[in-house]
Amino acid sequence: MKIAALAGGTGAAKLLRGLARLVDPGDLTVIGNTGDDLRLWGLHISPDLDTVCYALGGVVDVAKGWGRRDETFHALEAMGRFGEPTWFGLGDRDLATHLHRTRLLAEGRTLTEATAAVAAGLGVAQRVLPMSDQPVRTRILGPDGWLDFQEYFVREKAQPAVQAVRYDGAESAAPAPGVVEAILEARAVIVCPSNPITSVRPILAVPGIARALEESRATVLAVSPIVGGEAVSGPAGRLMAACGLPVSAIGVTAAYAPWLDTLAVHEGDAPLAADLEARGVAVLVTDTLMTSPAKETALARRLLEALP
Ligand code: FO1
């Protein structure tokens, strides 16, 4: 059964780990957000693709939800002594990923090829694709002007009031090879519990991807990253509010209309089910919080069992 998953970073990684325990590796294609990518110290860093690869490769720092476990930060400290920026916490093992990717890109390989190489090096058997080989950058308008996503999220600790969000480069980007095919050929497309504004919408902003979701015969299931009116983690709630969306499962549904078939919501959000169904979405009420490996697998199983 072929599954395609649209994925951001931390929240997505948990569900993908659960899916990976149930689905044949050759049947799972992850389409990752690259709107968070950045250049630092001359390196191309793809945080969400790396989080997915580290999680599927079994080397992620589970407590942080990103980066590698057993990490050290000697290079970061040494770079600080040269006056290089240290606000983005690049670990020593993580650095190897960025060095490898950056070298491959400098030699003319595409981000799709570089991502496949990173995944293979980490022993990831599933296919991990960037949403596009062309740069798309999520930018956030705060009170003092436009910020790159990581400047907003990490350097400024997601504190600036958000006035607008844009996806620079999206209009001239194309889906990476295999992305549209994976969506069209899937039995199910799973939208992971990622930030709708800064993880999923950048993927949808790449021309052709939203159309593929509409045209695909796949059942499209999303897991709401909003539980009880608040984001499970991170600034998703504030970003949704800034984009005029209700901070609730209703807002998640609005962000994914018109191609969403089923939304999985946490048990506490069961009272929203009638409203969601009136919007044409089937509702799956379940424990969406994935606070243990068993719960990751249980949620993945519930989604697969909900397929018609
Ligand atoms: N998140 C932080 O909150 N602080 C960091 O210093 C940080 C460094 C970092 C390095 C590599 C990487 O792959 C991810 C990193 N992240 C860090 C996470 C990242 O900013 C976000 O989780 C995603 O971009 C949002 O999905």
Q: Mind explaining what this structure looks like?
A:
The protein is of the alpha/beta class. The chain has a single domain (3-133, 178-305), classed as Rossmann fold, CATH 3.40.50. 39% of the residues lie in helices and 19% in strands. The chain has 13 helices and 14 strands. The chain has helices at 10-20, 47-56, 74-81, 92-106, 111-121, 149-155, 179-185, 196-204, 209-215, 236-242, 249-256, 273-278, 293-305, and strands spanning 3-7, 28-32, 38-40, 43-45, 127-130, 137-142, 145-148, 164-168, 188-191, 219-223, 226-227, 230-231, 262-266, 282-286. The protein has a seven-stranded parallel β-sheet with strand order 5-2-1-9-10-13-14, sandwiched between helices. A three-stranded antiparallel β-sheet has the order 7-6-8. The chain has a two-stranded antiparallel ribbon with strand order 3-4. α1 (10-20) packs parallel to α2, α1 crosses α13 (293-305) and α7 packs parallel to α9 (209-215). The protein is globular. The protein starts with a strand and ends with a helix. 47% of the residues are buried. The structure holds ligand FO1. The site of ligand FO1 has 18 residues, from α2 and α6.
